[in-house]
Amino acid sequence: MESERSKVLFEIVRTVVTVAIALLLAFVFILIVSKEPSKALYQFMVGPFLSVRNMGNVIELSIPFIFTGIAACIMFQARQFNMIGEGAFFFGGIMATVVALKITLPMGIHPIVAILMGGIAGAVSGYFIGYCKAKWGANEFVNSLMFNYVLLYAGLYMLINFLRDPKKGQLSSFLIPDSAQLPKIVDGTRIHVGLFIAIIAVILTYLFMYKTKWGYAIRMTGFNAKFVAYSGINVAAAIVISQVAGGFLAGIGGATQILGMHQRFEWSTLTGYGFDGIIVATLARLNPAFVPVAALFLAFLRTGADIMARNSDVPSEVVLIIQAIMIILISASGFMAKWRQRMIARKSKHAEEQGAIAC
């Protein structure tokens, strides 16, 4: 019988092997296409550590990845393949901008209210998808992909008609007042207080998923919805709660990104952070505790690829190769399955031998 500890160890080893294979294939690609492969590899792997600014870029980029990553963890643990994180992130940012520009509040309270409004907007978005699935069995994957564009164009309507600065040549809002902006915490970088908010969100998400009855209900619904319904758990409620919580976290992420990294709302299309969160959640094996590590790793890859593209002849799109290979291998249930079986058999044989000796 395989213990829980062995399962966690296997998933960690499998993820490390997957990352190593993906990086190795990326290195091979760089060696083939680059005229100066050693320089390209150096910029890719070492570039993010060469300055405080570069290291700051990694941490800054990891913040939205953390929010969308834990959002995806909650929704996917209920086996609800909901893509609403993308639209909720965007709409959370626009609603935070509305609060920042249209409501006057004291410094310190202003960003908190704006971020909470962004989270509420995301939660409502997630509720719509979850309710349609629980009530009518509507496919959450298709619904969320379509609803992302409803949120996009609703947000653009608000931006154009109520928030737009007519003096700017591009589509953007008025300047966000200082009272609503999140302060920077590291000199020479743009790392902001949103990093602490993200860490708190990870801790609370982990506690919710593994220390509360609704977190248990969500996880069990993902394992076997028919069985948990027979045992008395309200499956419909678990589905809706998972989508609301995921949307709330993604909305907070969008609000935090706008107030921490931008002086104006300037997004004219979906940001892609919601889909990046799925990559992060996949790397973290849907465990919120591992999301910060996965987010930092993905941010490191993106930053390194950007530095490499600016200082060598290799395009930054090489990181897409790494992402694709990692997702394919991690999602392949048969990858390293034989090694896992041998490990279980070896432990069982050892336990039998110990039992025989004891007798």
Please characterize this protein's 3D structure:
With 359 residues, this protein is mainly alpha-helical. The protein has a domain at 60-304: Orthogonal Bundle (ABC transporter involved in vitamin B12 uptake, BtuC). Helices cover 74% and strands 0% of the residues. It contains 14 helices and no strands. It has helices spanning 4-33, 37-46, 52-77, 84-102, 110-136, 140-163, 194-211, 213-223, 225-230, 235-261, 273-283, 291-311, 318-331, 337-358. Helix 1 (4-33) runs antiparallel to helix 13 (318-331). It starts with a helix and ends with a helix. The relative contact order is 0.19. One of its GO terms (molecular function) is transmembrane transporter activity. One of its GO terms (cellular component) is plasma membrane.
What name does CATH use for the topology of one domain?
A: ABC transporter involved in vitamin B12 uptake, BtuC
Count of separate DSSP helical elements: 14
Shape: globular
Please provide the count of β strands. 0
| Structural class by SSE content | mainly alpha
The name of the CATH architecture of one domain is Orthogonal Bundle
The parts where pLDDT drops under 50 for at least 5 residues are: none
Distance between the termini: 21 Å
Average pLDDT for all residues: 89
- Helix-residue proportion: over 70%
Task: Describe the structure concisely for a colleague.
This protein has 14 helices and no strands.
Please write out the topology.
Elements: H1 4-33, H2 37-46, H3 52-77, H4 84-102, H5 110-136, H6 140-163, H7 194-211, H8 213-223, H9 225-230, H10 235-261, H11 273-283, H12 291-311, H13 318-331, H14 337-358
